[in-house]
Predict the structure.
Amino acid sequence: MAEILYGDGRAGIDAALVRRLVATQFPRWSALPVTPVEVDGWDNRTYRLGDEMTARLPTAAGYVPAVDKEHRWLPVLAPSLPVAVPTPLAKGVPGEGYPFSWSIRGWLDGETASLDRIDDLPGFAVSVAGFLLALQRVDATGGPPAGAHSFHRGASPAHYDDETRRSLAALDGRVDTTRASAVWDAALEATWSGPPVWFHGDIASGNLLVRDGKLAAVIDFGTSGVGDPACDLVIAWTMFSGESREAFRDAAGQDPAIWARARGWALWKALISLVQDIDGDGRRAADHRRVIDEVLADHNRAG
């Protein structure tokens, strides 16, 4: 999920703990240096293990199911995808005072995607869409159905109806809640009726790696599963705009109902985030407002 720049020790996890876990469970790697990665995630703490591996530790119980899921399914998905994804190498167990299972993966070269690292944003958008379409084509038989493990990505956005309406009430008078309610209602009405397909669940700039300005890898499949892929289209408003958004939309295809649900997913996240930041972090609040405004405008054009 969201990328974090916190220092070592967040969620009670630090490099010393990782070194102890590796030494006791994987002694063949015990001599390798352990260092925090520069840009971390919220759901997991990630450490560089030597030059070619990472150790990845969930920060809370709700993120633990992703360990087994990714260990089982990433090797199945990888051969069909156009760019690299994490390679599971080993799975750790609770120990040294750490209560959860954890994993060791291969290191992926690249930098977190950001606008200043991408020269051709429409071309990049097409590459992201191509990745999503390739993911959707992978055989979904036996894959994990959307549910709690995916934080209900891939299911109906109706799971977050109460939360969304509470956010709308809290923001009344501060955003256009009448238009936002119309977008949300349209998302709920556009029910999913297709066969389940693979979705990533958190296609965002922090989970996309670039090299030489091009998409090189996609990471963090913790919210992945099989179901409705609408949630994977949210990047249309969170990262893309103008020409790049149209390039993404054209390349991704999809029917109007999927785009309606995608607008609902984007709106839900922007609303709950704005409630948290509106009286605090002005920069983040402005980003959430921008997403809300663009989703509302997009809904008007689609309608």
